[in-house]
Amino acid sequence: MTIASFSDSLRRHALKLALLLALLALAALAGPRLLLGPEVAMQPVLQRDFVQTVVASGRVATPHRADIGVQITGTVRAVPVIEGQEVAAGMPLIELESTELRAQLKQAELAVQQARARLRQLHELQAPMAEQGLRQAQANRQAAAHALLRSHDLKAQGFIGQAALDEALRADQVAQAQLTSARQQLDSARPAGSDAAIAEAALAQAQAGADAARARLAYATVSAPSAGTVITRNVEPGDVVQPGKVLLLLSPAGRTELVVQIDERNLRLLRLGLSALASADAYPQQRFEARLDFINPAVDAQRGAVEVRLGVPQPPAYLKQDMTVSVDIEVARRPMAVLVSNDALHEADGAAPWVLKLDGRHVRRQPVRLGLRSSGLSEVLEGLRAGDQVAPVGALTIVDGARIRPLPAALPP
Fold first, then answer.
1. What DSSP character marks residue 395?
2. CA–CA separation, 40 vs 391, rounded Å?
3. What share of residues in the chain are helix, strand, coil (percent, to 5)?
4. What digits encode the pLDDT tens for the residues 162-220?
5. CA 285 → CA 53, 135, 257, distances in Å?
6. Three-state secondary structure call for residue 383
7. SS3 at position 138
């Protein structure tokens, strides 16, 4: 054998040996998997108290807000509040220039005094004078009547002519007309008379004008309708303002609500009176209690959500208007429920959910009947018991009856 042929033979044997070693290594690695199955981290079936919650986010809101503006056109003299300030009911919020309004009120009050003096003059002067005029007219009428009787007697006796009798008759008629006029003047000057009615109407009109001027002057100061917090301020001293524009936005103090949008798929779980725990995103570690008080009967078709409102019996001091909050509404509770991780459920939303349950060294398909579902867990009503182990859906591609090597069970979330 030549040296060259011996070298070729040695290389062929070395190649066969390397190939054999590679096959032995591959068998060592894949053998347990092929013979014993893949390693799978199983998940245990637990038993403990279980609470189902509906989780959503929303905002802090009061039942209503007050848009503050002016009722008359004017120039702003002062705005004694700032955004975020707590105000009491009746506290001035906006003050307008009021010099002209005060002058108008003074003029109206003087008109009232004048009308009141006119009415007093009617009662104290004109009425007594009308009574005196009536008495004088009655006396004149009696004198004229007596003179007419005497004239008739004298005419009958031939002492006077027809002209004298006609003059006496005219004097009697004039006296009668004066008596009627005096009586009418007295009736007009009395409290139920027309002059008194006119004077009283003039007084009432003057008083109405004074009330209107007083109201316009009051409009120059805009006060807080209730206690609350100033959210927005859109006015400064010197601005010319007019009715119809919102100058301040006030959040009245009182009941605090959380306005939350709930997925319409959870509507069947909600009912009034459910308790909840909420936290502001700015203070995630500080949770406070709330209660479901209102469920909107309409569904928002654009978002597929239902608006609900939760009352906060004891709102924390840090809670502010329009803060973003997260809410966990407790919709159901089960003591010592059998629980399985949602990660192990196949066809969880279908009519026949199932899991791969560990049976010795194999996994078997196990149908289950589910109850409550929340926070990554589902209540198992039938099909599993506490202590059973199930394979997660996404662990490996394993099928019903497959042999596996179970690893220590991992606790579900």
1. S
2. 7
3. 40, 30, 30
4. 776 667 677 767 767 776 766 666 565 566 555 666 777 887 888 888 898 898 899 99
5. 18, 97, 20
6. coil
7. helix
CATH classification number, 54-63+254-334, choose in 3.40.228.10, 2.40.30.170, 3.30.200.20, 2.60.120.10: 2.40.30.170
May I ask the CATH class of domain 70-94+220-235?
mainly beta
Q: Report how far residue 20's alpha carbon sits from residue 22's, in angstroms, rounded to the nearest whole number.
A: 5
Residue 281 near residue 258 (C-beta atoms within 8 A): no
pLDDT digits (tens, 9 = 90+) for 91-147: 999 999 988 999 998 998 898 888 788 767 666 556 566 566 556 766 666 776 676
Closest CA to 169 of 150, 187, 193, 188: 150
Three-state SS for 234?
A: coil
- Map out the domains of the chain as residue ranges: 36-48+335-408, 54-63+254-334, 70-94+220-235, 99-218
Residues 6 or more apart whose Cβ sits within 8 Å of residue 339? 45, 46, 47, 48, 50, 377, 378, 379, 380, 412
Q: Could you identify the residue written with the tokens 């109850």?
A: 371
What the block records as the tokens of 87 is 């105000």
Please give the model's pTM, rounded to 2 decimal places: 0.48
Phi and psi torsions of 169, nearest 5° = -65, -40
- Cβ within 8 Å of residue 307, ≥6 positions away: 259, 260, 261, 262, 296, 300
Query: Residue type at 349?
Result: D
Structure tokens at 352: 């026949």
Could you tell me which residues are beta bridge partners of residue 362?
359, 403
Q: State pLDDT tens for residues 375-385.
A: 788 889 999 98
Range 36-48+335-408 has CATH code 3.40.190.10:
no
